[in-house]
């Protein structure tokens, strides 16, 4: 059975609206689908549940964790297997990739979120988010230029 992206988006949107209406779930402003924030909340929720600590989690994650990261990972894995596109690839240096990924998440959390969350916050009129978005854009341009000059 194939589901078009439009149908999947409509089902997901209506499901989210129904869940919000029935269970009174209201995510914090500008939470969006922030992989860095949802990962932080998932890890902090697990640590709080196991050790009884009080690490910060967003209000929407207090009772039960937001499983966006797990859903994206599982959904991508299933989609890749269904379409026979799943291949394990060896990178040049997996340790460097891991460290860079951890740094991206750390800096996203220090800055206040991922590009999607920064865009949503900018739409709400947050000037700091706009400055952050411009800085992120400039950083990508500078890093791309350095990378292209080094590898050209």
- The sequence of SSEs as H and E is HHHHHH
Question: What's the rounded overall pLDDT mean?
Answer: 82
Largest sheet: none
Question: How widely separated are the two ends?
Answer: 45 Å
What share of the residues lie within helices? 55-70%
State Rg.
18 Å
Shape: globular
Number of DSSP strands? 0
Q: Please tally the helical runs, counting DSSP H or I stretches of 4 or more residues.
A: 6
Low-confidence stretches: none
Alpha-beta content class? mainly alpha
Into which percentage range does the β-strand content fall? under 5%
Keywords: Membrane, Transmembrane, Transmembrane helix
Please describe what this structure looks like.
With 152 residues, this protein is mostly helical. The protein has a domain at 92-152. It contains 6 helices and no strands. It is globular. Keywords: Membrane, Transmembrane, Transmembrane helix. The chain crosses the membrane at residues 63-82, 94-112, 127-148.
Topology:
Layout: H1 5-23, H2 35-51, H3 68-82, H4 94-111, H5 115-123, H6 127-151
In short:
The chain has 152 residues and is mainly alpha-helical. It has helices at residues 5-23, 35-51, 68-82, 94-111, 115-123, 127-151. It is built from six helices and no strands.
